[in-house]
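[job 4471] stage=fold_predict status=RUNNING
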Amino acid sequence: MSDFKHKEQERLSGRHAAERLIDIAYALSAGPPLKLRVDGELISVPIPDELLLERELTSNGEHVQLELELTWSRP
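[job 4471] inference complete, writing structure tokens
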């Protein structure tokens, strides 16, 4: 797999954000490779058995930010 970077942002309701997370969770639970649609194209990303999940929650009193990050080395 070649190097790449893709970033997207969309404004969603809480329910629709949950549906996006469910889609990602389902793709992970389906087993390797991870298949995701990016810019209308289906990409396959190899994943190992073990991933690192990082969760970060911050608040400045006005805004709350929850970041979820999955990282792994290519198998």
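[job 4471] summary: The CA atoms of residues 36 and 42 lie 6 Å apart.
[job 4471] exit 0
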